[in-house]
Amino acid sequence: MYMGKHKEENEGLIKYGLPEDCWFHVDDLSSAHVYLRLQPGEALDDIPTDALLDCATLVKANSIVGCKKTSVYIVYTRWKNLKKTNDMVDGQVGFHRPENVRRIQVEKNNFIVNALNKTKVEKFPDLAALQQDRIREMQQEKKQHRREEEKAKKALDLEAKRAKEEFSYDRIMTSDNMTRNSEFEATADSTAAEEYEDDFF
Fold first, then answer.
1. What CA–CA distance (Å, rounded) separates 95 from 135?
2. DSSP SS3 for 199
């Protein structure tokens, strides 16, 4: 979980977030931007209830107006759903898909706020570099996934080819394995044909 200290840091977080980030903000009020970094592959439904409450409570506590209210509504969505246009002021965002924004109500909870403040650590990471590192990592993961898919496809194709050859008559009905009728000596009692049949069976 991490939070911007002021609007400039909020802008950096908006611009250089990661696909796994989930964004929290007080609905219709000015507040801090709080982010929860999920594990790759996790969705909003995978956020534990306690973590959801912690993020929502932290956002409320860091809203000049919201912190004075008994309860407020918090909106949250994936970072990749945030939309920033040139006409927006610092800290302002829109959404690519508003239907993917969720809304919950949270009440004032000093116990949670105090517990979070005790574990607070101030850092100044290079957000742009972190984002580029994650992008490269995702690209490598995609390449590896494609290689594994191609390898699996080749294995299936080879197995299918072997199975086809195993049940094919092509390897049996060759000129080397066949005997022409002219190679048998004709006899009145068909002895040659019977001898051939005996050899065959």
1. 22
2. helix
List, in order, residues 6 or more apart from 88 with CB less than 8 Å away.
94
All residues at 6 or more sequence positions from 46 whose CB lies less than 8 Å from its CB, including other chains:
38
Per-residue pLDDT tens for 100-140? 999 999 999 999 999 999 999 988 889 999 999 999 998 99
The C-alpha atoms of residue 98 and residue 20 are separated, in whole angstroms, by 18
When mean pLDDT is compared across 72-76, 151-155, 158-162, 173-177, the lowest value belongs to 173-177
- Sign of CA pseudo-dihedral 181, 183, 186, 190: negative
Name the residue type at position 33: H
Q: Are strands 2-3 and 82-83 parallel, antiparallel or unpaired?
A: unpaired
Which pTM was predicted? 0.72
